[in-house]
UniProtKB/TrEMBL annotation:
InterPro entries associated with the record: Ribosomal_uL4 (IPR002136), Ribosomal_uL4-like (IPR013005), Ribosomal_uL4_dom_sf (IPR023574)
GO molecular function per UniProt: structural constituent of ribosome
Lineage of source species: Eukaryota, Fungi, Dikarya, Basidiomycota, Agaricomycotina
Keywords: Ribonucleoprotein, Ribosomal protein
Family according to the record: Belongs to the universal ribosomal protein uL4 family.
Keyword Ribonucleoprotein included in the entry's annotation: yes
Stated name of the protein: Large ribosomal subunit protein uL4m
Any Gene Ontology CC annotation: ribosome
Gene3D superfamilies in the record: 3.40.1370.10
Positions of the UniProt region annotated as Disordered: 108-155
Gene Ontology BP terms: translation
Length: 278
């Protein structure tokens, strides 16, 4: 739509659009001179409205069953990105990602020898005719004991390919599933300066089948040494965890650095895959 507009009118349109917070219309101006009454071409291009999601608030988890004399961190909450921790649950995506990960774990080292690889002479055992028995070749025949294997397994690569964005979506779905099941916790920091397994095991009495995830570049030696001897409890880094581990453990607890890592790495390049109808 073309129309003559003065600089005052144009400025008023811009102020109304920005002041009202309207994101549906973006004015595109092609003005030769803003100080004179020259003609200005204004075109309105419709844009999709920007959606501002409400953060997801989660109370901080007490650090290793704190004593009654210690301050309770549940009075504090941490805001989580709903794009990461409140993603719609997609079982089909989880199946794809878990299958892709388990395929990469297969060694594919099974190997058998064919009749051409079995040691022995290639001479014919008996004449073709005259014996009254079935025709038979050399001793490496698959029909004979000690012979080769027909159509046996050979070393192969079982790994499959999966788009990176689908794997990232699987991480978002796995984290969101733990939040919805209330098997998700956040701590300020994962540290155990004492380094003694005995005392840490007493403080972790209520954290069975728990995976602790830290976003620190260097994991504390004290907690790493103390937690490795406690059964049903593990510690890993945020950049090393995968969807299979998130689903395998009953509960996951992150520190604030791990939350920041997931929001930074999984909050970009979102991908939508429509669910398949069966």
């Amino acid at each position: 739509m073309l129309w003559k507009a003065s600089p005052l009118t144009t400025a008023r349109i811009l102020s109304l659009s920005v002041g009202n917070g309207c994101r549906n219309v973006r004015p595109t101006l092609n003005v030769r001179c803003l100080t004179t009454q020259s003609e200005a071409t204004v075109s309105a291009l419709p844009l999709a409205a920007t959606v501002f999601s409400t953060p997801l608030y989660v109370a901080l988890t007490p650090a290793f069953n704190q004593k009654p004399s210690e301050p309770n961190p549940k009075e504090n909450v941490v805001a989580l990105d709903p794009e990461i921790f409140n993603h719609p649950i997609r079982r089909d995506i989880l199946h794809l990602v878990v299958t892709h990960y388990r395929d990469s774990l297969r060694q594919g080292s099974a190997n058998t020898k064919t009749r051409g690889e079995v040691r022995g002479s290639g001479a014919k055992i008996r004449p073709q005719k005259g014996s009254g028995k079935a025709r038979l070749g050399d001793a490496q025949s698959p029909m004979l004991r000690g012979g080769g294997v027909a159509f046996g397994p050979k070393p192969r690569d079982f790994s499959t390919k999966l788009p990176r964005k689908v794997i990232q979506m699987g991480m978002r779905i796995a984290l969101s599933a733990k939040v919805r099941e209330q098997k998700f916790g956040v701590m300020t920091r994962l540290d155990w300066p004492n380094g003694r397994t005995k005392y840490l095991s007493q403080r972790l009495s209520g954290f069975q089948q728990t995976l602790f995830i830290t976003g620190e570049d260097q994991v504390s030696t004290g907690i790493q040494r103390a937690i490795r001897n406690i059964p049903f409890v593990a510690l890993t880094k945020a950049d090393e965890v995968n969807v299979y581990e998130l689903l395998q453990w009953s509960r996951i607890i992150l520190d604030c650095k791990a939350v920041e890592f997931f929001e930074r790495t999984l909050g970009k390049n979102s991908l939508y895959i429509p669910p398949t109808t069966s």
